[in-house]
Amino acid sequence: MTRRRAAAFALAAALASGLAGGCRVEEAEAPLRPAPDFALPDLTGATVSLADLRGRPVVLDFWATWCAPCEFQIPVLNDFHDRHAGRVEVVGIAVDAGGRDVVAPYAAEHGIRYRVLLGDESLAQRFGALGFPTLFVLRPDGTVASSHAGLVEPEELEQAVAAASEAGAERS
């Protein structure tokens, strides 16, 4: 193998391992940070704020209608929402420039059963989202417990929310 091929292979392997690692659960760095405050409209026009969500763990998913991986995340979040209704709040924050006119039909067509808010990329940046989808798990007190760039496996989501719930109970 020539040096050039060996270098290309090493670079490809490094990139592949880095990309694979980007879809794994990443705990927020200590100390925990409060989630950035927001007040956003939902698909009915009602305003939902971060303060409205406090008191139980929250799964915040930043997504967009043009994002193919985001579409694959919907069934995972629907299932999680159905199994944890009343105990965990699942919220999708759509960052589409078209707003409600684009997001509402998409949400209906794809059967989204959890709450959808209309956000923008500036809020995603304030949270530290690394592309879409990026998911954040918040403790009941509103601090960011963990973040997940890319698709999240159901087991990883369960573990992250359980950890956030336990940490929230310890602080109470």
Give a structural overview.
This protein is of the alpha+beta class. The chain has a single domain (26-171), classed as Glutaredoxin, CATH 3.40.30. The protein has helices at residues 3-21, 50-53, 68-84, 100-109, 121-127, 154-171; strands spanning 25-27, 33-34, 39-41, 47-49, 58-63, 89-94, 115-118, 134-138, 143-149. The strands form two sheets. Strands 1, 2, 5, 6, 7, 8 and 9 form a seven-stranded mixed sheet that branches. Strands 3-4 form a two-stranded antiparallel sheet. It is globular.
In short:
The protein has helices at residues 3-21, 50-53, 68-84, 100-109, 121-127, 154-171, and strands at residues 25-27, 33-34, 39-41, 47-49, 58-63, 89-94, 115-118, 134-138, 143-149.
Furnish the topology, listing elements before pairings.
Layout: H1 3-21, E1 25-27, E2 33-34, E3 39-41, E4 47-49, H2 50-53, E5 58-63, H3 68-84, E6 89-94, H4 100-109, E7 115-118, H5 121-127, E8 134-138, E9 143-149, H6 154-171
Terminal residue distance: 61 Å
Order of helices and strands: HEEEEHEHEHEHEEH
CATH architecture: 3-Layer(aba) Sandwich
What would you call the shape? globular
The CATH class designation is Alpha Beta
Helix content bin = 40-55%
Evaluate the radius of gyration: 17 Å
pLDDT below 50 for ≥5 consecutive residues: which ranges?
A: 3-31
CATH topology: Glutaredoxin
How many β-strands, per DSSP? 9
Return the structural class. alpha+beta
CATH superfamily: Glutaredoxin
Number of separate domains: 1
Key terms:
about 170 residues, alpha+beta, Glutaredoxin, two-stranded antiparallel sheet, globular, disordered N terminus
